[in-house]
Amino acid sequence: MTKRFLLLIPTLLGASVIIFFMIHLLPGDPAQILAGPEATLQDIQNMRIRLGLDKPLPVQYFMFMERLLTWNLGNSLVSGFPISSLILPRFINTLKLAVLATIISLSIGILLGIIAALRRNTAIDRIVMIFALLGVSMPVFLLAVLLIVIFSIKLHLFPATVIGTSPSLRHLVLPSLTLGLIGAAPIARMTRSSMVEVMSQEYIKTSEAFGFSWRRVIFVHALRNALIPVVTVAGLNFGYLLAGAVITETVFAYPGLGRLIVDSIFARDYPVVQFGLLMIVALFAFVNMAVDVLYALINPRVRLE
Questions:
Q1: What's the predicted TM-score (pTM) here?
Q2: Largest alpha-carbon pair distance within the chain?
Q3: pLDDT tens-digit profile of 202-251?
């Protein structure tokens, strides 16, 4: 556990290097944008000096890391507000969205996977697999638009967009359902495959021969072992949810970190983009570590190794 935690340090350090230098490959000069269309060359140069953009990139990187380690992130180049006050509320909103979407994807995916495995090679099995295929193939934005048309425009059940920066639970339904349904597809496929394999094992047949109820055989003996690969998929799925959240937040005008990053990219607000991306990477890394811990809890042999 300690070694796994320490591995996060070089991972996040490498991510910070990649993010910092990739951002500077974006076309456009933030000093020129901020100076305005009527600015002279001297005005642009003065703006570049004021922002610290005249220094060599390695020096700028160390300044970036110093601000990160001291949590003195500085101010946004565009709005002038402290970056920490911009990022933290958006990060919490994205975290709420990702957690709710994960709960939806796990609940639907595992349930459908079990049903498909128990009804293998039947019409129900084929319907579930078609759902899974659609979920894997369908673009996030297309599903988001479909849900808006059905639940917001036609049925008037849930709002399609968020006004303000504090979304309520009703505002979370459609974005989290979009990400949850997309995430449920691979989990359903993996759960079905894993359950079919486990159900063919001798110890399952022995449990049935001893007269255990089917609920105990399925949910105690079979599902525990079948969940081992599902946990790995769920951990990787969380990363895809965060990537999909960028698109989903834009479609639903959801005030999350993804939307803030997209807006900041168009405004060439480098520091906000850098710190925002780094927080997403850190969250993904911590989730993967949590998956490893959960994996060891489900499969004690991992701890022995």
A1: 0.78
A2: 86
A3: 877 777 777 777 777 777 777 777 777 787 777 777 777 776 677 888 88
